[in-house]
Write a structure and sequence with these properties.
Length: about 375
Amino acid sequence: MFQQMINWRTGLAAIAILIVSGTIFYSQYLARKIASQERLKVEQWVEASKSLLDPGITDTRLPSKIMFDNTDIPIIETNEKDSITNFVNLDSAKVLTDTNYLQRKLADLKSINSTPVIYTDPADSTKINRYYYGHTRLLNEVQIYPLIQLLIVGLFIAVTLLALRSSYRSVQNQVWAGMAKETAHQLGTPVSSLEGWVEMLKENPENKKIAHELEKDVNRLRLVSDRFGKIGSTPQLEEMDLVKQISSMMDYIKKRAPGKIRFSMNTNGASVIIAKISAPLFDWVIENLLKNALDAMEGKGSIHVDIQSAKEEIIIDVVDTGKGISKQHINTVFKPGFTTKKRGWGLGLSLSRRIVEQYHKGNIFVKHSEIGKGTTFRIVLKK
């Protein structure tokens, strides 16, 4: 699915480039063609206007038609000193009320077409008129069309990529939930069988110690099975004491940690901190963070958990003195498959984020990390 998504992205990008490139080239071709036609119209307009001033021409119908047909090309006529002598297709009201309007429009037309149409009086070569002109509305639309199409193509690609991403995540969620439930189902039968064997061992007083240890491991397997069974379905949140929950999980990890690892917890003076959680799933999150901290310290160091009850939220910081996380990896530690360890599938932190954000409507992130000094993971739960 991931490779297919990459192929879709590449294909969409190539199609977009072809569409935009073709549109730009064709729009430029049309713009040049319209611009040449506009100049031709201006030249005809100049000739027509001069013809109307020639007393030798008796039939003025054609020059008059050419003059009056020009309703969309703004033109400003200047003399040999570049002083304005005439204009057409400009706002007459602004000409009367704004003394600088014509000069501003002249500057605009010069910037649009720096080469004006020039007319030299046949009777007096010193009399020269320059005709500066602007673009028609059609040419302006043709020039802006590629930008509009680029925006539309960009939106199309963005919507398509979002749809593909949503589809990919939906399939991923279904696969994860299905694998988790199947795992819980497969564990159910052997765990039930082991529970029966433990009960049989308890009947013999000589096996009491062994049965007690086996019972703890079987209960642990039952807890793991229960956790997997809750993935993909909405868990029941209950008011629980976070201090008790986290302390219990720390004691469990501490018994399995090397002797040189120091564990500590600070509740900031609170003996009980109540929050609505799914105990099996939340314990899983704390267990993942503590195990990651143990792996990061490689046999020695300290793990500290700080729990703070604020006005509207509960903040839990898990701090270790391990090897830390590089800056380029901080944004990818919660992605499925990311791991720096030789063993494991890199799913622990990804599942932790899913549990905290989707099931508990909270937030989990790397608050701080420094290579060689350690990492702080923060969990924020709403009260």
